[in-house]
Amino acid sequence: MMNFNDKKYRLIALALMGQLLFSSSCNEDFLNTVPDNITTLEDVFTNKNMTEEWLARIYNPIPQMWDQPYGTPWSGQSDEVNYAWSQPAINSGALTPVNTNPNHWDRYYQTIRSAGIFLENIDMNQEIFEQPGGPQLITQYKGEARFLRAYFYWLMMKQYGPIVIMGESTLPPEGDFQIPRSTWDECVAYVLSEMDKAHELVPEKHLNPNNPSQEDLQQTGRITKPIIKAVQSQILLYHASPLFNGNTSLGNFKNQDGTVLFNQTYEEARWKDAADAAKELIDMGLWDLYEVDHEDPFVKGYLSSKELMYDGWDTEGIWLRPDNNVFGSWERHCSPRNANGQAWNGIAVTQEMVDDFRMANGKSIDNPTSGYTESGFTSEASEYYAAGTYNMYVGREPRFYVNVTFNGATVPVVSVPGSDYVEFYFTGNSGKQGAPRDWPITGYTARKNIHPNSDFRSGTSFGRPAMMIRLGEIYLNYIEALNEYSPGHPDILIYLNEIRNRGGLADYEGSTDQATMRKEIRLERQIELMYEGHRYWDVRRWKIPDTEEDHQGGEFHGMNIEAGGYMSDPAFHQRVVAFTRADWRDKFYFYPIPQREIDRNKALVQFPGY
Length: 610
Fold this sequence. Notes:
Blueprint (H helix, E strand, L loop, with lengths): L6 H18 L16 H5 L2 H12 L21 E3 L5 H4 L12 H17 L4 H4 L4 H27 L23 H16 L7 E2 L2 E5 L9 H16 L28 H16 L12 H15 L1 H4 E5 L4 H9 L12 E3 L1 H6 L41 H6 E2 L39 E2 L19 E5 H15 L4 H13 L11 H15 L6 H7 L12 E5 L17 E6 L13 H6 L10
Antiparallel strand pairs: 1-5, 2-3, 4-8, 6-7, 9-10
């Protein structure tokens, strides 16, 4: 466990402050910051500071994964959570080409263009070139810009499907922008190729120029070779998945010239490519699963999973990004109203997610031997809940208590003095009666990545980077791909059990046939990566969003927040329909291209259904 007072932590914290300056230095429109006497690209790219500001601007749109509910709302568009204050259009079925929020089409293409301009002009910067190590720095900057250009293409591909690849040269404003979508396979090949080129240009790690034997912590978050390999692991996993690999249901999605945009032939070898990419990262040996030492496996699993987000990034994090939203956005929106100071208490976890957590013995709640019951209330308090807590929440696996705040749970942050437990029943301290809209519609709130010492009244917060990609994800990427390509491979159980054990569960002992392991791996991924920005995309790439178990539309459930006057009141502890979303439609696999773009670019075809 990391000591917050140790020297290394303080050095990294200071370094992250420097990186925050780098990543936020271009929040205002870049052109608005250029002095009156600097008006041309030549002026910008012959000035070191302006050139580096331009590069910072390319980094800036990278999504902040914990900027929920407003900035990065993918969890709230999946079956993970519901937001009290905003509803993305897809949830109501109102997603159309003229109502595309969140719309990243314009901003990401603008950033792609900015990266292209950077690549075309950076060589003219003699000020950088002539400084010590200047040529190497220019090469590194080119690699960063080339990767980022490809990365924003990738983000667009996930959201919109096959997109328009603009190529190496940026077109002038008067250029011909009547360009059709490239096929999915062409998009993937281009993005992977560009990342390969960038990989040759960026360092393994950023070294301190004043002491090359040490890593330069001020560069945390900047692109390195391992980061590129990790992103490629994600891309290859998606590329192998059912939505993108021989998806005959999209055989009629074609360009105007008849080009089919999704490959119609299943290729098993794609899974091998994905498995190999993940294993390459694992074999680098640069990271470990974060674990806290404790003799009790349950407590060890709880502490390891809980502290992973704010202590474990130095051990497990592959791509780290400074995150200045976690305290003011994520923590505050998740925490109950009896937190000390103002908290907004409305990122509501669905009953469907609650039910997917297993018991401490590793068995699912529908297993008659699991010990699960929805009858009665416990008479004993624990570290995780109060006496009088509903038995539904007793004896669950450690990660349940890390991820979900329920009626009777301990307050996840510094609480109002004398108010140690959360009350979600109607008249409770965080119930519906006490606020116009700051209450969870399901009777649960998200809990992961909330620091226990955060204090909203005093403003005490604990900065830490977001793990955009971590080793636990790479393990899951690896075993998912391996199970599809080489079912029964011994590594599947080895790495599945690594994740289970860290989460406080014993080794898996059930059937190991391919279909059963596919289900187990997907469940493990759902629980291990909850709220980290994967679920929305995973159910789509697996082509399961219209299944009963993983439905993304229709009715979602929770406790009865309209009732209850005390902790153990049975009236609150009733399963009810908490909210209803639009029924699933296949057009929801991808977002529509904004209509104004369709109107401008006559070569574009809209995704079917819009």
